[in-house]
Amino acid sequence: MRSRLTLVHLEAVVSVAENLSFHQASLQLHTSQPALSRCIQGAEEAVGAKLFDRTTRNVSLTPAGASFLPIARRLLMDFECLIEGVTEYMDGDRGTLSIAALPSLGATLLPEVMCEFARTWPAVKVSIVAPHNQILTDLVVNGQVDFGITMKPPKSEKVLYEHLLDDEFVLICSPAHPLAKSSSCRWSVFKKYPYIALSPTTSMSLLTQQVFKQLHLDVEPAYEIDGLRLTGQLIAAGLGITAIPRLVLPQLGQIDLRVIPLRSPAMHRSLGIVTREGRTPSVLANNFLKLLQHSKITATK
Fold first, then answer.
1. Running DSSP on this structure, what letter comes out for residue 241?
2. Would the pTM of this model clear 0.70, i.e. be above it?
């Protein structure tokens, strides 16, 4: 049974072939001549052929050695390329980063961060999905994404939460609405004016309903809309008002609307980074999260 050919064998063969001297090759490889001779012998046993003719004065390649030399060089070059590739992955210069983010965050926080990330790490592929809150957490727990950017989840042994920012709820109305010039509004105005509700499956709708319940407000929606752009169009047409987090505003579309702070109480949703408990973040993830943490400083300005 032949012995296995190793990288050490390949390096020895190439060095002896290039120097045509065991003495010079041993110096280049930082080894002794007897050890080098044993290594060449091992290479010859592995390939099943004599690679060098050696006398007291000369070293030359045999026909088999001449045929094997370019193969040895190519194998060493391929190995070096593979190592460089692995190093790039380990250093975060190459690879794929998978992120799950609430749609509102994907439309506001992420574009700026992704531009900076792409400039710094152009060879990294970034994949982003924008599911609802509960599905997002499941993707993190199942390891389908590197991390999620979402509302603060209930305490769990499966995920870790790092706070990023607070996103305040605001009232949205048309410029012609009676509330348009208000400096702030109470939540009780939703009893007085037609209320346009978002789909009850959204986290924003659930939080709004919690406030209504807390204030004992029995608010019946005039419209229930599954889609932020349509919601914005209905508000612009004067059909009602709604309450949404400030970071959601760009998703209403490029239309003229009034944004009024809501008080009594001032309501915020806590947004942050969710990672799986016990999972060490990749270098790619850490690089992206550092940029994201920096971006939160200007996110709500």
1. B
2. no
